Amino acid sequence: LSIPSPPSTHPTSSAKVGDRSYPRDQWTNVTPTILDRTTAQLHRQPGHPLHILAQRVRATFSDFAFHDYLNPDVTVEANFDQLGFPPDHPGRSRGDTYYLNEQNVLRTHTSAHQTDLMRVGERKFLVAADVYRRDEIDSSHYPVFHQIEGLKLFDVSSLGPEGLGDGAGVGRTADTGPVHVVDDSGPTSANPVQEVHSRNNSLYLTEDLKKELERLVLELFRGAPSKESGAPLKIRWVEAYFPFTSPSWELEVEWEGQWLELLGCGVIQQPLIRAAGLGENRIGWAFGLGLERLAMVLFGIPDIRLFWSKDPRFLSQFTEGEITRFKPFSRHPPCTKDVSFWLSPEQECGVAANWSDNDLMEVIREVAGDMVEDVKMVDSFIHPKTHRKSMCYRITYRSMDRNVTNEEINTTQEEVRRRLVSQLRVELR
Ligand code: FA5
Ligand code: MG
C-alpha cells in the first residue's frame, strides 16, 4: 500500500512578512492564514478595544518610551537564546512556535525585544505588539494575541550602598485604598535573588515593580463595570518561573469569582543586561501583560475571535479612551461535526510518537479560518486486538459575522477530512 505524498500547500519557496522574505526550510511551519495576520495591527487601530487598553497602559507609564510598530519577525536568538531559554525548552518546539525558517520565528512574546532595546540605549520602555503561538482552539485561545512589555533599568549607585529595600511588600496583606493585595511571595530558594545582586537591591526593585503594577491594575479596573462594583478589587502575587527573570511572579486579579492571570514579571537576569552591553551598575525589572484576556473581562467580550471581527456591530460599540460594557449581538447558530480516525503506528507509540493536537488545530484553521469556534477531543481508545489508537474530535463551526449554510459547512468538513489524511496521514473511520 503506497501512501501518496502530501500536496504542497506552499506554492512559493519563501515566507513573506511585510517586505521581508524568508527562504523556507525544514523548520518552516508558518501558514498563509497566520502570515496574513501580521499586517492587521489591531493594537494600533483607534477605537479598537486592544488599542484603547494599550493606550491606558501607556498613560499609566507616561515617562516610558512607547513602541507599537516593531516587526513580528524576529530571530530565534532574540526570542529564545538571548533570554536564556535552554536548548530543550518546550516553547522552542515546532509544535508551539511558528518558524519562518530555522533561524527566524514570529515572536512568541514581546520579551523578544528586551535585549535589542536595552542595547540601543533605552532605559524605560513599553512594547505593545502582536505575538504568535501555535495553540488549541476555543473561546479564549487564538494563535495571535497581543502583549505589552514593560522594562525599567536602575543605576545601582543611585540606590545607595544599602539599597532601599526593607522587605516590605513581602508577607503583606495590604489594603491600598480600593485594592486589596495579598502577597506572601517573597524570594525563596526556588525563586531566588540572583547571586550577583545584593538582597537589598533586589528587594528594592521588587517593591518598585509591584508598586507600579498595582498602580496599573488600579488604573485599569477603576470604574470598570463589574457585577460587584463597590467591593475592593482583590489581587495576588504568585511565585513564577521565567528563564530571563529571577525572582519572578505572576499577578492575578479576582474577577467575578475567578482568579485571572494578567501578567508575568520579575527582576531581569543580569546576563541579559550584560549581553546588551551594560555593566553590573545597571539592574532592572520587566513585565509582560496579555491584552486579550484583560480586554475580555474589562469590556465583557465573550469570545477572543471577536477582536478580529470587521462587523460594525462589534467595532461601533467602542469609544477611544473609554472602557465600556460590550452588548453581545445575536450570534449565528453553531454547527458541530465529529471526525474520527485511526492514528498511523508511528504517531501513536514508541519514541517516535509524534501526534500533536496543535497540528490538527492548524489543519482545521487553514481550512475553516475564523469559522472554527472550538475543537475538543471527545473520545480516544486503543483497539484491543489491533492495538491501534482511535481519536475522535468534535469541531464547532460558527461564523462571527454571517450565517453559514449547511452546505458550506459540509464542504469545509470534507476538506478538513481530506487534509487530515494527506497532511497528517491518519486513516479516517
Ligand atoms: C510571557 O510571555 C513572558 N514573556 C512574560 C514576562 C515578561 C515575564 C517579562 C517576565 C518578564 P506568559 O507566556 O505567561 O509569559 O504570557 C504572559 C501573559 O500573556 C499571560 O499572563 C497572559 O495574560 C497572556 N497570555 C499568555 N498566553 C496567552 C494566550 N494563549 N492567549 C491569550 N493571552 C495569553
Ligand atoms: Mg504564564
From TrEMBL:
The keyword Protein biosynthesis applies. Is responsible for the charging of tRNA(Phe) with phenylalanine in mitochondrial translation. Signal peptide: none annotated. Belongs to the class-II aminoacyl-tRNA synthetase family. GO terms for cellular component: mitochondrial matrix. This is Phenylalanine--tRNA ligase, mitochondrial. It is found in: Mitochondrion matrix. GO terms for molecular function: ATP binding; phenylalanine-tRNA ligase activity; tRNA binding. NCBIfam families: pheS_mito. Residues 330-429 form the FDX-ACB domain. It is an enzyme of class 6 (ligase). It comes from Piptocephalis cylindrospora. The keyword Ligase applies. Its EC number is 6.1.1.20. CDD domains: PheRS_alpha_core (cd00496). Keywords: Aminoacyl-tRNA synthetase, ATP-binding, Ligase, Mitochondrion, Nucleotide-binding, Protein biosynthesis, Transit peptide. Residues 1-23 are annotated as: Disordered. Residues 53-328 form the Aminoacyl-transfer RNA synthetases class-II family profile domain. InterPro entries: aa-tRNA-synth_II, aa-tRNA-synth_II/BPL/LPL, Fdx_antiC-bd, Fdx_antiC-bd_sf, Phe-tRNA-synth_IIc_mito, Phenylalanyl-tRNA_Synthase.
